[in-house]
Amino acid sequence: MPDVGARLDAGTPDDAGAPADGGAPADAGTPDDAGAPADAGAPAVLEDCNKRGDEDGNGLADCQDLACASTPGCLPTCGNGAMDIGEECDDGNDADGDTCEANCTLPRCGNGIDDPGERCVSITSPATGTTVLAGGDLFVAIATEGEPPEIVEIFFGNSSEGDVEEIDAPPFTTHLTVPIKAIGSSTLSVEALYSDGSVGFVPAVHLTVDLAATLQSIEVVNGNVVLPAGQTQQLLVGGWFSDNVLRNITRWPTTSYQVQGFPIVTATVSSTGLVTALTPGISNLAIANGSVFTTIEIDVRPPSAAAPSSTKARNATTATWPATAAAIATASSRPQP
Length: 337
Prior knowledge:
This protein is mostly beta strands and 337 residues long.
């Protein structure tokens, strides 16, 4: 009869209902490891953006570490002692008058900051390229930084060409009359005179000079030309304008010269009015500007012949000529080539 009551280990209290290792994972319920990754509970080391050093050990310290990118001390800021994009310098302070200004720019004339030992003078009005009217009013303003000059001299062209305006106390401002003879272009210049006798030169301002008046007639100041062959003579051509002012138009780009000779051309004339005598004979020279023109005579003598003491009669309008050749020669004109 089978031994039904005594199966192998059946009913053994130690194992009943519990297959080997069944339902119980290794170390299940062990308090030391359950639900906790390795090293759990150890705090991570973070970069201290306000303390010098590489606290997180990633090889990037402080503002070099991306973790500090938004920290106020790491944002591009003038005065933080670091050269940031757009800065010319950064000495770590917000003071002017040292090697780096408070706005992180290098000291320079015209920045509105008085630096130690600075002698700075600049023309603030008019600006280069300003268009003015010949004979019109022009407001001039001079700015200074650092030690102010004792006297500021203001003039058109160079100081030997006309009147010089002197101002001996701030504010260095004045009104000038644009020279009536200035046409095409002119320059406004300034010199600063200091108490120790030194002179400061200011970059000139270039002006465009318009003329409301129109050209009425042309006059050759040095008249008809008499020259031995092989010699040269510079013409001096003046233009009478509707404002009754005589201006030097010798070298204007719009002034043209054309020699007319028959049977031969006895001379040549350059675009700037320089006559070169070639061969004995007489030629006519037409001088024109737009629709206005005049004609003079060029008398070329043999090389051995001495030129007469006086030229032939000038144009009919010469009798009313109010200025000497020297006067018109120094008058302002278009830029010389």
